[in-house]
């Protein structure tokens, strides 16, 4: 989840100034919930719960999305923060802001994968079965919430909302990853390489492919012996270099990865010459232990505030 850094405190204070909204946050802290189920749990009408949800969204505490339901779409509410940091004005304080992009794991723009491989939405396998890379081109692949392959690569394009007057400080990319073993194997290391805008920014070794215990958000229809969840990986690129889980993995900094491109290219790869060729599984919202897809957070300083 995210740490909410609030420099404009009013929406946050307003969101928290309600026992009902506090109860909503407590319920969503246990699991994502459909809005009508929240209304039922709190004994409120749908119209009243909608007002509360909007205030929590405005404060960036929760996220909502429409999902298929019986007969009609339903609104799913998800808690996206587990802590709050308030920034109060003080002399000499430089305001810092951020842009956030969410990239669905099914919205990849290029790939070259080798079996074992496959994709699935939250509701079904995409294609007629596993281990056929052709289904990575199926029209349903945009709805994929889990994908896996033994070696090869997958690439994404991420929008860049940075403005000319904004000076980038740090880019953080988070995603839930694991290895890809036959069924699952917690001791199945895999070297996963990351490229950003064509720059080989670093490598992380996944310890295994985790199954046997159902992921927090993995659907019930998914075989319990298959890959269930991964680890939430943080890649940070700042003025000191590139870091994965706090360990420096390269000297590429925020200033030499072409950060001002209109769109960024992110590539995840298990290379043919890797020491540990153990595949890659990517978990999106609806699978695994973290209800998110690929999240990119760019922290910046607004130069207008420095004049």
From TrEMBL:
The keyword Transmembrane does not apply. Keywords: DNA-binding, Transcription, Transcription regulation. Residues 1-95 form the HTH arsR-type domain. InterPro entries: ArsR-like_HTH (IPR011991), HTH_ArsR_DNA-bd_dom (IPR001845), Metal_resp_trans_reg (IPR051011), WH-like_DNA-bd_sf (IPR036388), WH_DNA-bd_sf (IPR036390). Pfam families: HTH_5. SMART domains: HTH_ARSR (SM00418). PROSITE patterns: HTH_ARSR_2. The keyword Transcription applies. Gene3D superfamilies: Winged helix-like DNA-binding domain superfamily/Winged helix DNA-binding domain. This is ArsR/SmtB family transcription factor.
């Amino acid at each position: 989840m995210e740490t909410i850094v609030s420099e404009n405190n009013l929406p946050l204070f307003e969101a928290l100034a309600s026992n009902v909204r506090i109860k909503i946050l407590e319920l969503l802290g246990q699991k994502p919930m459909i809005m009508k189920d929240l209304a039922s749990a709190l004994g409120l009408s749908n119209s009243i719960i909608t007002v509360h949800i909007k205030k929590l969204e405005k404060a960036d505490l929760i996220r909502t999305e429409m999902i298929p339901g019986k007969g009609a779409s339903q609104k799913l509410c998800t808690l996206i923060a587990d802590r709050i940091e308030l920034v109060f004005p003080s002399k000499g304080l430089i305001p810092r802001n951020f842009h956030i992009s969410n990239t669905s794991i099914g919205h990849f723009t290029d790939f070259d994968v080798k079996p074992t491989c496959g994709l699935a939405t939250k509701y079904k396998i995409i294609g007629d079965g596993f281990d056929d890379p052709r289904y990575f081109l199926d029209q349903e692949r945009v709805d994929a919430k889990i994908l896996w392959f033994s070696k090869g690569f997958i690439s994404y394009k991420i929008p860049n909302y940075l403005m000319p007057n904004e000076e980038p400080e740090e880019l953080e990319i988070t995603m839930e990853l694991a290895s890809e073993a036959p069924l699952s194997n917690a001791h199945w290391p895999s070297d996963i390489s990351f490229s950003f805008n064509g720059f080989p920014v670093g490598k992380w070794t996944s310890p295994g492919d985790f199954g046997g215990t159902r992921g927090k958000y993995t659907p019930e229809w998914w075989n319990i012996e298959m890959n269930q969840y991964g680890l939430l990986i943080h890649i940070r690129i700042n003025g000191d270099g590139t870091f994965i889980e706090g360990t420096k993995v390269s000297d590429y900094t925020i200033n030499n990865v072409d950060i001002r491109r209109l769109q960024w290219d992110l590539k995840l790869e298990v290379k043919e010459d890797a020491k540990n060729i153990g595949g890659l599984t990517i978990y999106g919202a609806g699978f695994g232990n973290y209800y998110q897809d690929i999240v990119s957070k760019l922290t910046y300083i607004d130069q207008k505030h420095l004049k």
